[in-house]
Amino acid sequence: MQRRHSLVLVHWLLTEHRCLEYVELCESRMSRSHFLFRDGLRLSHGLRHVKLCYNLLYDYPPRDLMDALSSTIATLNTLEVVSVRFSAAGVVMLCELLGRCSALRTLILHENELSASDAGALMKSCAACRGLKAVRVDESFVSVECARVLGDLVFGNQGLEELVVSQFSPAGTQARACSFRELFNALAHQRTMLRNLEMYNFELEESDLRCLCRALTVNAKMKRLTLLCSGASEDAYFSLAAVISNNVSLTEICVNACLLPSWSLKAVASAIETNVSLRKLSFNDACLIADDAVELLEALLVNQTLERVNLGHINQPGLLNFLKRTGDKDLRNRLELTAVYGSAQDLIYSLNHDLKTPSVSFIPVAQIREEEFLGLSRGLCGNSSITSLSVHLNNAIDSNLAVLLSAAFASCRHVRAAHLCFPTEASEAVTILQGIAKSPNLCDLVIRRWTFEHREAAAFGDMLRATQTLNSVTLEELQGDSGAFLVMELPRALETNYTLLALNDCEQTEDEQNMFEIRDALRRNLSLLQRATRFVVPPVSDSKKAASAFEKVRKSRALVTNVSRLSGLSEPEAVEAVKLRGRYLDENFMALARVVKQKVVCEREGAGDCPVQLDEIGLDCWLRLRSYLRLDDIL
């Protein structure tokens, strides 16, 4: 499609479709025909989210663009500016827009080319924007040159509730020195109304961590803290125990485990015992020794107000003893963890004694013996507690373990996520994929270090055709020309797969036609999901299109997630809502297919013995008959 024609289409969508709430302008110089986009923005109704991405916005186009955005002031809720080069005039106009946009609630500024003075001017405008609730920025706003910028924002804007600061430059290549002292000092002030602080990917100095700890111990308004950063030195650590003991307002804490040395866990456990405000605690990327983590279990038995604790990965030694201590049902329901088994014997013992471990990671350090295969087979096949299964091998998987995994996937009804990391031979890969195809609830699949040729790629395609639940597939570190073989097979496989929404790390730029067909199939599936959601979420749609989309994706976990998010239901309630609408579809199939208006009514031609009519066969018989019918089969 030519550029001008595409902008005409965008103009029509913006001006005529009042339901349109989100628009993204990506990879454009806005030099020609930009007036169509500008005019569409000006005439749009109900636009709530605008994203400018990868643009060169200099004086003339941004002036028109900012003027157009000014006309959406009444509805614009979120403004996102990513990887944009602004001129000085462009920054001034953006500041003016922020000052006038009273409806703006969220501002996102990531990876833009801004000087220290530009960053300061933008944050000063944010401080004056009283309706602003959330600001998300990158490392350029915490550089040494901008040391006071975020501190002044937090101190000056009494309505600001959320601040997210992220570093996007690769780890170990921090582009500029960062200073957080002014920001953390502002958190300690009583005027600060911030409720949520999130920090990602920074290397924090020991002095910064001490300053943050002091601020949080006196802050009485903060509700959520996310600190996914690392220490700049081996001695740098975060005093989580002091924060839990002294802070009376925090309800959620997520902290990177590398900031918590193992010797500090005892103090953290003691702090948990006396805390009454904390509801969720997460140790991100944690690899805890089971013997060290036992004290946290003892603390949870004392603290009955902490609802959810994510301990990450629990390793030997002491793993079995740790799992035995989680036998209390209430405690087990409050815990999230992955048990890492390095021994087949330990895994067999756990399975045979029903230690109820939902997430299992199997990383054998020795060759598995034949009797261990039998024990694993008895324990894994048909297991009702495992929901996530991860297998990591250094060497290529052998045929016995491939058969075991295939049987486990086919028989474990509750497995939703699988991570398979090992080299494969042709027959073993096909065997495992055949088992995955029969898995009744698998949603997320990660495959690493596999080799795909014609036979394996065909088996992968057959698996996608057979599955009705898989939502996401990630392919990492594939060997040889595996990506090329898969990309040739996937377009045909996705023709009849309606549930896959994400296919990660499978880009083949030299095969653009097949990649376009793959992306187009994923877009189709996403549209089907949204249409199916309308069949469930009030006000429900009983249109044939919505019912047909629901029929295709009714077993998808993504449908439950979407229904839960849009309707505000809990996960069990969303599952029940999907089941009820599925029952409604089965019972009212003929009406939804527009064969009849309400229900099937048959007229007898005469008296006497007549064969049983369609409206007399009974519900059970009808449901069996309906199982052979599809809405798309009826024109």
Automatic annotation (TrEMBL):
<dbReference type="InterPro" id="IPR052201">
    <property type="entry name" value="LRR-containing_regulator"/>
</dbReference>
<dbReference type="InterPro" id="IPR032675">
    <property type="entry name" value="LRR_dom_sf"/>
</dbReference>
<protein>
    <recommendedName>
        <fullName>Ran gtpase-activating protein</fullName>
    </recommendedName>
</protein>
<keyword id="KW-0677">Repeat</keyword>
